């Protein structure tokens, strides 16, 4: 499995640890930054880079890390075809993949340690999409454009 990883300065340490773990698990990992600790850098940069790669490379996954995971999740979900899910446990990771065909896992460096991140990422990568008609229909609607009030 090819996995694109990215983080801001607050998620850098967890991202690097997780990337190493994923390589040990047999994944091909492509690091999209941050590459060094630069306090105050923007989470947007890594989220955009990973989202673009996942969108342009079918059958790949992404992992993003920032302090809360909210920023990277919101940014990544701005891209058509990207379904980013903020997961803080293995059950939410399983459901994100199984029910929603999530293709980007977002983790909080503030709330998730290395060991927990490894378990969540393993579950995310190993779980397949439950290809039921209702799930496909719902996922297809995610990319609809409209003016929502």
TrEMBL record:
Keywords (A to Z) from UniProt: Isomerase
EC code(s) of this entry: 5.3.1.6
Family to which this protein belongs: Belongs to the LacAB/RpiB family.
GO molecular function terms attached to this record: ribose-5-phosphate isomerase activity
UniProt protein name: Ribose-5-phosphate isomerase B
Keyword Isomerase: yes
InterPro entries in UniProt: RpiB_LacA_LacB (IPR003500), RpiB_LacA_LacB_sf (IPR036569)
Entries under Gene3D superfamilies matching the protein: Sugar-phosphate isomerase, RpiB/LacA/LacB
Domain of life: Bacteria
Gene designation per UniProt: rpiB
Cleavable signal peptide: none
Top-rank EC class of the record's enzyme: isomerase
Keyword Isomerase included in the entry's annotation: yes
């Amino acid at each position: 499995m090819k996995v694109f990883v990215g983080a801001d300065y607050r998620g850098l340490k967890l991202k690097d640890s997780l990337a190493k773990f994923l390589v040990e698990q047999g994944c091909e990992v492509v690091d999209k930054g941050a590459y060094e600790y630069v306090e105050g850098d923007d989470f947007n940069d890594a989220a955009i880079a990973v989202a673009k790669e996942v969108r342009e490379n079918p059958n790949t996954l992404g992992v993003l890390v920032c302090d809360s995971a909210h920023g990277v999740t919101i940014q990544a979900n701005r891209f058509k075809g990207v379904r980013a899910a903020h997961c803080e446990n293995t059950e939410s990771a399983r459901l994100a993949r199984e029910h929603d065909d999530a293709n980007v896992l977002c983790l909080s460096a503030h709330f998730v340690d290395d060991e927990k991140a490894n378990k969540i990422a393993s579950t995310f990568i190993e779980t397949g999409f439950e290809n039921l008609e209702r799930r496909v229909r719902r996922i297809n609607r995610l990319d609809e454009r409209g003016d929502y009030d």
